[in-house]
Amino acid sequence: MNNPTLEAFLASHERQAHDGDVLATVAALASAALAINKAIRSGSLGSAFGGTNATVNADGDTQRHLDLYADQIFLDAMRRAPVRCVASEERIAPVALDPESRIAVAIDPLDGSSNIDVNVSIGTIFSLLPATGAPGIDPAAFFLQPGSSQLAAGFFVYGPQLVLVLTLGHGTHAFVLSPELGTFVQTHESVAVAERTQEFAINASNYRHWEEAVRLYVDDCLKGEEGPRGKNFNMRWIASLVADVYRILMRGGVFLYPGDSRAGYASGRLRLVYEANPIAMLVEQAGGRATNALCSILDIVPTGLHQRVPFVFGSAREVERVARYHTEPSAIAERSPLFGNRGLFRA
Length: 347
Ligand SMILES: O=P(O)(O)OC[C@H]1O[C@](O)(COP(=O)(O)O)[C@@H](O)[C@@H]1O
Ligand SMILES: [Mg+2]
Ligand SMILES: [Mg+2]
Fold this sequence. Notes:
alpha+beta; Fructose-1,6-Bisphosphatase, Chain A, domain 1; D-Maltodextrin-Binding Protein, domain 2; 5-stranded mixed sheet; 15 strands; binds 1,6-di-O-phosphono-beta-D-fructofuranose; binds magnesium ion; EC 3.1.3.11
């Protein structure tokens, strides 16, 4: 492979006047991911890592051994990087590190925990935010900046390949671990999400809990060629956000985790600061769209570190279409049983 290694990619960006601390932090995250990958591939998934601990995280989710192991590995790596504070899905409050540093890291150390026991892809999601200001400032404040303030974002997938997808704010780049070189090698210089799609991702078991706009959108996809969309749709749901977003970056698609009527799910399941924001930045840097069904994820000002948000992202035209099911109910109400000439919903 003649493509650049991650180290060469980062060095070339430093020459282009990128913040050296951002690049050093990305490099530290990558080396921690190599350690997690090695641990996962050691073969002890089921017994050592998959089992649950008798603990829950800040959101009430049961923590697995691998959640906590990954959290510790990444925190240790961030102590060795120019990082002022780290916020993790697995910790109620941020951890203060070097007060002289200017970067805050938000992290979902292990995404897709329900897939650990069943050997399906899992991953890590990270977001880098500016952390400037007086030394005494409460680190929690750094994580309440909107996603549009992110300096960099990315995720790793511990799947058939160990993959890194990264943005430094100028495009989205993909890398894969080269076992020969022992480091990441670039596979996609600039990822571009297809504008249109015929593939959607949603946990359909929640159908009865969704609001009408979401049900109608999915109903119309399922009707296929005979329905108002006039084309057949495929469906995927991996239940690891990292794996679903990687597929969408590579071949298009739309992902929905809407709010629903279950207790605790009014804003869906996914967390704004360390899941939706970094994924939204990556998807938008690749030409896709990311919303809470109505407005851009990156414009939302967080009010809490662990707050959830309805999340719709992927192929731009399809994400915009989902928004129209929410904002133009009159058009939905006028649906003809024969799906006549409804310009709004056709194709
Ligand atoms: O089990 P559900 O409700 O379909 O939710 C699946 C979603 O939950 C998540 O597993 C949440 O992330 P964590 O595993 O980090 O808690 C996402 O990766 C995935 O998209
Ligand atoms: Mg997650
Ligand atoms: Mg997690």
